[in-house]
Design goal:
Elements: H1 7-10, E1 13-16, H2 32-37, H3 39-45, E2 49-52, E3 56-57, E4 69-73, H4 80-92, E5 96-101, H5 111-118, E6 130-131, E7 151-154, E8 159-162, H6 177-192, E9 197-200, H7 220-228, H8 234-244, E10 252-257, H9 265-269, E11 278-281, H10 283-286, E12 289-290, E13 293-297, H11 302-316, E14 323-324, H12 334-337, H13 345-356, E15 362-366, H14 387-398, H15 403-413, H16 450-454, H17 460-473, H18 476-479, E16 481-484, E17 492-499, E18 502-509, E19 515-516, E20 526-530, E21 539-540, E22 545-549
Parallel strand pairs: 1-2, 1-15, 2-5, 5-9, 9-10, 10-11, 14-15
Antiparallel strand pairs: 3-4, 6-8, 7-8, 12-13, 16-17, 17-18, 18-22, 19-21, 20-22
Helix pairs in contact: 13-17, 14-15
The structure holds 6-O-alpha-D-glucopyranosyl-D-fructose (ISL) and calcium ion.
Length: 550
């Protein structure tokens, strides 16, 4: 069967982390009106689909990924009326909006949980997972993603509740049909408002292994994959969501997939599955995570990254679909992690952009990548805001790690690297706010900002714009077969995209070195795009990217 053509395969996603995007009223927090003010900027880039991280009512223990009312906009972001204006502004510009759906867990301040915890026989008790302790401790040895036990004791009823994330994010019990009804109602509410789909937070985690047995696995990633993710009823639940709700709308869904390996990916996105349209698999994001996760790093390089891209391409075949991305609000800035954010910042940002927009999968760009924003180097724990960073700081330093050692790990791997305010211009606080930003602006904002890239036709911004337009013009880059042509040099990525409509070769140099590139086949092609000025046909400059066409 030929690969199916769908708008959500062709369009490009741009992720907004609203807290850090643009503050319109001087309270230091990015907001809906701030996004509205920048819609023309987003449109200028040429992207089609805006994914907004959560803007619902939330105590903000995990910046909105802990929702206390799924039907309300958090006042710090604005009002429902402003949301409607935003949605209209997006649609008027021919773009779409997808919202974050966080229904593996709610906030502990959600009315459901407040009732649930109030007594053993409360009708909402079974909205969450409550268990008796074992040997004076929690029911099992499961650990939370953010450190410590995944169980929290509640003295009121002398039981523990499950929270795979922070203790303010209790896991919802999808076994309970009433919970599913509540969730389907939430979906319908937002879809009926006219949004264009959902990014589904940790969706493979929604079905639990109900024996809650201890795990003997030593690495956290393995625990996620084999114990937390891909539970026995996960496909039943997602399929039910599809049959009951999703299929009735012209929308897209992308599941965030911690624990979804290439071996089970198609179960979520195979074209006949009636589940999700695509997944953000995290395999390449989790590269470098040691047994205890990101703050326990191990080394890796391009060979491992390329191997994963190959495996996922092979696993999806023409049936399933993934998104291609190199960072988001949970992982370091792509140019700092995969590129060179000092000497070759611009070159490497463009080179990585070329990869994102020429592999097979829906390209997803995280806010600030188009400016070339980098990681931050805050050196005090007080400068960080992320609950993950603070929890692991306590855990690791209490075990004896010197605080400065932990901080250097955070500077490389922490989530606040991507959560500093967007650098709009060189005025105070980078033009993000007239007040005091909720998290400090990266000190490099005078050098790196939107105003600067917009004024320079050779900037990263316009390279993205060119690539996005090029990909739209040449659908072969969306649907065409992908083939690695020569894998002998680990610093080079050399592949083709081909179908009956077109024939392309992409040549990328992922390194700070010059490399020879005398491939015979290139003589049959003409050079269409190149990220740097270089007349030497057979020599690639550091981080050079070229697109050839026949
Ligand atoms: O960043 C990670 C931990 O180091 C990832 O494992 C991340 O926690 C995981 O991918 C799930 O992320 C999603 O759910 C979390 C939320 O904190 C993240 O922001 C969100 O993307 C809980 O809702
Ligand atoms: Ca604000």
């Amino acid at each position: 069967m030929p690969i199916e053509r769908k708008w959500w395969k062709e369009e490009v996603i741009y992720q907004i982390y609203p807290r850090s995007f643009n503050d319109s009223n001087g309270d230091g927090i990015g907001d809906i009106n701030g996004v509205i003010q920048k819609l023309d900027y987003i449109k200028e880039l040429g992207v089609d689909i805006i994914w907004m991280s959560p803007i619902y009512q939330s105590p903000n223990d995990d910046n909105g990924y802990d929702i206390s009312d799924y039907y309300a906009i958090h006042p710090e972001f604005g009002t429902m009326k402003e949301f409607d204006t935003l949605l209209k502004g997006i649609h008027d510009r021919g773009m779409r909006l997808i919202m974050d759906l966080v229904v593996n867990h709610s906030s502990d301040e959600h009315a459901w949980f407040e009732e649930s915890r109030s007594s053993l026989d409360n009708p909402k008790r079974d909205y969450y997972f409550w268990k008796k302790g074992k040997n004076g401790g929690p029911p099992n040895n499961w650990k939370s993603f953010f450190g410590g036990s995944a169980w929290e004791y509640d003295s009121k009823t002398d039981e523990y509740f499950l929270h795979l994330f922070t203790k303010k994010q209790p896991d919802l019990n999808w076994e309970n049909p009433k919970v599913k009804e509540e969730i389907f109602d939430i979906l319908k509410f937002w879809l009926d408002k006219g949004i264009d789909g959902f990014r589904m937070d940790v969706i493979p985690l929604i079905s639990k292994r109900l024996d809650f047995s201890d795990t003997e696995l030593g690495s956290f990633n393995e625990v996620v994959e084999k114990v937390y993710s891909n539970g026995p009823k996960v496909h039943e639940y997602i399929n039910e969501m599809y049959e009951r709700v999703l299929q009735h709308y012209d929308i897209m869904t992308v599941g965030e997939g911690p624990g979804i390996s290439k071996d089970v990916g198609l179960n979520y996105v195979g074209h006949d599955r009636r589940e999700l349209n695509m997944i953000f698999h995290l395999d390449h994001m989790f590269l470098g995570h040691g047994p205890r996760g990101k703050f326990d790093p191990v080394s890796y390089g391009w060979p491992e990254i390329k191997k994963l891209f190959q495996e996922w391409y092979d696993a999806m075949g023409d049936s399933g679909w993934i998104s291609i991305f190199l960072d988001n609000h949970d992982f370091p800035r792509l140019v700092s992690r995969f590129g060179n954010d000092t000497v070759y910042r611009v070159e490497s940002a463009k080179c990585l952009a070329t990869m994102i927009l020429t592999l097979r999968g829906t390209a997803c760009i995280y806010q600030g990548s188009e400016i070339g924003m980098t990681n931050v180097d805050f050196d005090k724990i007080e400068d960080y805001r992320d609950v993950e960073t603070h929890n692991f700081y306590k855990e690791f330093t209490s075990e004896g790690m010197p605080p400065s050692d932990f901080i250097s790990l955070v500077q490389q791997h922490g989530r606040d690297n991507v959560r500093t305010p967007i650098q709009w211009n060189e005025t105070k606080h980078a033009g993000f706010t007239d007040g005091t930003p909720w998290i400090s602006v990266n000190t490099n904002y005078r050098e790196i900002n939107a105003e600067k890239v917009l004024a320079d036709k050779n900037s990263i911004f316009y390279w993205y714009k060119t690539l996005i337009a090029y990909r739209k013009e040449h659908k072969t880059l969306v649907y065409g077969e992908w083939k690695v042509l020569d894998d002998s040099n680990p610093d080079l990525y050399f592949y083709s995209r081909k179908d009956e409509e077109g024939d392309f070769i992409i040549l990328l140099n992922h390194s700070d070195l010059h490399h020879e590139a005398s491939f015979d086949i290139l003589s049959e092609y003409s050079l269409d795009l190149q990220n740097l000025e270089n007349d030497m046909v057979d020599i690639l400059l550091p981080w050079e990217a070229r697109i050839y066409r026949k």
